[in-house]
Amino acid sequence: MRFAAAVSRREDVGEAVQHLAASVQHQLPGDVDLLAVFFTQHYLDEAAALAAKLRRELAPRALIGCSCEGVIGGDKEIEGEPGISVLAGQLPGITLTPFHISNEEWEDLLFSPESEDLLRRRVGLRGTRLESTRACLVFGDPFTTREEFLQALEALLPGVPLVGGIASGGHQFGQNRLLLNDGVVEDGVVGLRMAGPIRVATVVNQGCRPIGSSLLVTRAEENLIRTLNGRPAQEVIRETLEALAPEEQELVHNGLFIGIVINEYQPAFECGDFRLSATTF
Q1: What percent of the chain stands above pLDDT 90?
Q2: Contact (Cβ atoms closer than 8 angstroms) between residue 143 and residue 169
Q3: Three-state DSSP class for 62?
Q4: In sequence order, what are the beta bridge partners of 256?
Q5: Phi, psi angle pair for 16, to nearest 5°
Q6: Is the per-residue pLDDT at 279 higher than 60?
Q7: N or C: which end of the chain has fewer CB within 10 A?
Q8: Are the beta carbons of 139 and 100 closer than 8 angstroms?
Q9: How many CA within 13 A on the CB side of residue 231?
Q10: What is the DSSP letter of 145?
Q11: What share of the chain is helix, strand, coil (3-state, %, to 5)?
C-alpha cells in the first residue's frame, strides 16, 4: 500500500488539478484507489468541477473530501488564501464502500424502530461480515451532523476506528461542501467503509477545549495582545491558569492556543465555535 500527497495554490481549478495530478502521478505511478480532497472556501462554487476534473485525471475508485478553513500537504500549509490538498492511496484488495447520510435522514437512521437495520444497509453492511470492516472514513457538515451518529456507528461496528473530521470555513448552514465520488452535498455526512486485509492505526492531530471565561481584546499591537478586558494580558492569563486543577495545569505545559470566536453575536460559546491560533507568552 502506497500513498502520495500534493497541494496547489493555483486559483484556476483546471490549472490546480493539472498540477495536483502531475504531482500524484510522479509520486505514485499506477492506479489510484482512494483520493481524499480538501479545499478552501475560494473553490466552493467550483466544487463539482473540482471533483469531476480530479476523477477524470486520476480515475480513483473512490473520492471523498470537504471544504476547509485551511489545507496542508507535504511541507506546505495554506490559510487565508486559495489552496487544494489531495491524499492519494493505492489500496489493492481493499473494498471501499461510499455512503452519504443527509440531514433529513437522521430521524429514521438514528431514532426509528428500524434504525439499526437502516444504518447497517446505508454503510454497506448488508450481506457482509462485520469483522471484515477495518475503518470508516467520515467527513461531516458541522451544522447538520448528529452526535448520535458516532454512537450508533460505534455500536454497529465496535472497536472499528472512525477517522475523518468536520468541514470548516463556513459560518452557517450551506457554506460548506462535502464531496463523494461524483456528488457534491452541503449537509449531513459523507463516508467510506474500508474492508479487507488492512490494519488502520489512528492518531489525534490536535485537540483543544476552552478554559476560563471569554475575554475581549482591548489593546493590541500587531500580533501582540496587550490587554484583555481592560487589564494586562499576562495578569489575566496567569489568574486563569492558577484557577485550573493541578492535572489541567500540567496539560498547559504542552502549549496554549487562542480560540478566536467565529460568531461574536452568539449568546454563549462552546467547543467548535472557535478558530484556533497558536500562541506563546
Answers
A1: 64
A2: no
A3: strand
A4: 279
A5: -60, -45
A6: no
A7: C
A8: no
A9: 9
A10: -
A11: 30, 35, 40
pLDDT at residue number 59: 97
Name the residue among 105, 186, 96 with its Cα closest to residue 141: 186
Nearest to 40 by CA among 177, 173, 235: 177
217-239 pLDDT per residue, tens: 999 988 789 999 999 999 999 99
Buried (b) or exposed (e) across 150-187, using 16+ Cβ within 10 A? eebbeebbeebeeebebbbbbeeeebbbbbbbeebbbb
- CA–CA dist 266, 208 (Å, integer): 20
pLDDT tens for 56-66 read 999 999 999 99
Residue 44 vs residue 170, higher pLDDT: 44
C-alpha 169/C-alpha 83 separation (Å) is 13
| pLDDT mean over 266-278 | 71
pLDDT attached to residue 281: 47
Cell numbers describing residue 162: 472512525
pTM for the full predicted model: 0.76
The one-letter amino acid at 8: S
Cβ–Cβ contacts within 10 Å for residue 281, how many? 9
Is residue 252 scored above 90 in pLDDT?
Answer: no
User: In terms of residues, how long is the chain?
Assistant: 281
Nearest residue to 207 (alpha-carbon basis) of 274, 157, 155, 261: 274
